[in-house]
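To assess whether the prediction recovers the assembly geometry, we first specified each molecular entity separately, as shown.
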Amino acid sequence: MSSEAEKSALLTRRGLILILSSPSGAGKTSISHSVLREENAERAASIHLSVSVTTRARRPSEVEGVHYHFLSKRQFESMRDQDELLEWAEVHGNYYGTPREPVEAALTAGQDVLFDIDWQGTRQVLDKMRPDTVAVFILPPSAAEQRARLERRAEDDSAVIARRMANARAENEHWSEYDYVLINADLNESVDKVRAILNAERCRPARLVNLPEFIETLDRDLAAQAR
Amino acid sequence: MSSEAEKSALLTRRGLILILSSPSGAGKTSISHSVLREENAERAASIHLSVSVTTRARRPSEVEGVHYHFLSKRQFESMRDQDELLEWAEVHGNYYGTPREPVEAALTAGQDVLFDIDWQGTRQVLDKMRPDTVAVFILPPSAAEQRARLERRAEDDSAVIARRMANARAENEHWSEYDYVLINADLNESVDKVRAILNAERCRPARLVNLPEFIETLDRDLAAQAR
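The predicted structure of the complete assembly is given in tokenized form:
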């Protein structure tokens, strides 16, 4: 029997929510993409990025259900008011949120879900889903490096960069609310650390849903062998 | 600047105590040796096995200070009574224990220490050093495999094997007191999991002793750049 088959025969695991938060320019998006790619290369469908709902207009490059689920304001408010969102925010007059149902379905199926959200969203998710949630805060190695990364993004003009730098200070205050903190000095090292966190957290006894039954069987067999 | 140099310049880390516990025949000793070898190959002196003190007579193959520190009963009791042991036990009339001082020195130097102890020792260490301690429980994939592993050890006769199998049941009851649990179906996978746990736990904010100062500097530099 292959080791993968043995493992799946032995233990059933509940999935987890992996939150990555960081100020702009810390390199979170690159880390997220690499973690998703490497984890799924090792085992298909093991982790996916949560798809948010939003009331903002769809851009030509965006695909419904891939980048966002695009909703009317009324649809969004209905979800929010029925507690169908794990977290939500209003940004420049548009709503953004994370629907609860697909996340619950993934966790039950033993799949992990990656959330790319800020400290305010993290706080809401921790309030609702603390036992299922692992929150990681990513810092840039220095302010100069952070600015350089923001400037390398062709899309942002200097006013946007200045605002993002100012927001970074507000975001940084909240590192102590996170389970893990890392400084992204090197992309590969940071990806390895996030994957280590993910693989460690998969070994938490509370996520191994049939562990009590496994131990019971082991003990019964040990007792039988002792006779 | 190399990434290793950058990291050491950016953050100072307090070491951690990594406890591995398991019933006999779960493969803990093989896992410990591989974790130590692989971690130290990647970065010298990053983690070492704690050397216990004991009042048992030294065997010809054993070296003082490597396998154990060999003490008189009076010396041991003096250490124990002055709270110089993180954990201790009496087994078949001999004392065994873990001295506190070298562990404290290692943690302060940013080095991790591996403890190979049972649930009773683990409970004592958690009482004294909870914030510094990460406790991992290792289970065999099945009772049959556990017995086979014990029988492959030439050193044990069948009475010893039977006793170890019985003890395993008592040990197994305590899995829920551990931070992480893994089933050792495959040595390489188990080593990878323990290393993932170690590398994840190194990212806990409470162990990153100068993180508050790092954030302060980052914020000051961000403020300066915003002007």
